[in-house]
UniProtKB/TrEMBL annotation:
Domain Glucosamine/galactosamine-6-phosphate isomerase positions: 10-224
Organism: Geobacillus jurassicus
Family annotation (PROSITE patterns): GLC_GALNAC_ISOMERASE
MF terms (GO), sorted A to Z: glucosamine-6-phosphate deaminase activity
Biological function: Catalyzes the reversible isomerization-deamination of glucosamine 6-phosphate (GlcN6P) to form fructose 6-phosphate (Fru6P) and ammonium ion.
Active site, UniProt feature: D67, N136, H138, E143
Pathway recorded for this protein: Amino-sugar metabolism; N-acetylneuraminate degradation; D-fructose 6-phosphate from N-acetylneuraminate: step 5/5
Pfam families to which the protein is assigned, alphabetical: Glucosamine_iso (PF01182)
CDD domains per the UniProt record, alphabetical: GlcN6P_deaminase
Reaction(s) catalysed (UniProt annotation): alpha-D-glucosamine 6-phosphate + H2O = beta-D-fructose 6-phosphate + NH4(+)
Keyword Hydrolase listed: yes
Protein name per its UniProtKB record: Glucosamine-6-phosphate deaminase
């Protein structure tokens, strides 16, 4: 794992955006694996600003998102599809049918998970996967205890994750209980992985990750099994590194 220290959130966002822009220039039809949440927002702002200023084009890019809440459709402001359309896709020149997010409204959720795995294969695999990290070390919605061998699957969210995400919902009870997520095996099949971490609330997870013990108790530790992982973290997220 390669570690890059950024001074603060904005510098982290600029560095991650630069990696994505380079990837898209090198391979204009790249497959980008994308995440939602707070940490990646600055990166998406940077990509949009660069697209407007420098004309970097996403016309041939394909994207696959990590996860989606079960029960929330594209028009629901808390769905990850809505987030992606709003913060990124709607502000770039990417055709929307080249963007993919698991369908949280699918009638047959297990079939939706299998379809999503097939889709990633048909796209030729993920060139560059962006990841955030949960305070408990989750990646995607793969919570502690998830076997590393899992493909895309339905998960029941932990209380901690639902609490962490409750800030986006009217109340805790409105946070969905289930989600569809790429599995750890799906994530590890990406050719390259970039994990972002910002803020002191991520410091413990990053310190545990960098200790190097590989265990399902810390889902992100699976990244030690991958040959091309970069962590870009700000000083606060690295505060507990000896
Ligand atoms: C989001 C995702 C999650 C987040 C993680 C960090 O698609 O898969 O694993 O990356 O929960 O979230 P933030 O960035 O909001 O702290």
């Amino acid at each position: 794992i390669k570690l890059i220290e950024a001074a603060d959130y904005d510098e982290m966002s600029r560095q991650v955006a630069a990696i994505i822009i380079r990837q898209v220039k090198e391979k204009p039809d790249a497959v980008l694996g994308l995440a939602t949440g707070s940490t990646v927002l600055g990166t998406y702002h940077e990509l949009v600003a660069d697209h407007r200023q420098n004309g970097t084009s996403y016309r041939r890019v394909r994207t696959v998102n990590l996860d989606e809440y079960v029960g929330l459709g594209p028009d629901h402001p808390n769905s990850y599809r809505y987030y992606m359309n709003h913060h990124l896709f709607g502000q770039l020149d990417i055709p929307i049918d080249q963007t993919h997010v698991p369908d949280g409204l699918a009638v047959d959720l297990d079939e939706e998970c299998r379809r999503y795995e097939r889709l990633i294969d048909e796209l030729g695999g993920i060139d560059l996967q962006l990841l955030g990290i949960g305070r408990n070390g989750h990646i995607g919605f793969n919570e502690p205890g998830t076997p590393f061998s899992t493909a895309t699957h339905v998960v029941e969210l932990t209380e901690l994750t639902r609490e962490a995400n409750a800030r986006f919902f009217p109340s805790f009870d409105d946070v969905p209980r289930y989600a569809i997520t790429m599995g750890i095996a799906t994530i590890l099949r990406s050719r390259r992985i970039v994990l972002l971490a910002s803020g002191e609330e991520k410091a413990e997870a990053i310190a545990r990750l960098l200790e190097g013990v590989v265990t399902p108790d810390l889902p992100a530790s699976a990244l030690h099994l991958h040959p091309d992982v970069t962590i870009i973290a700000d000083r606060e997220a690295l505060a507990l590194i000896p």
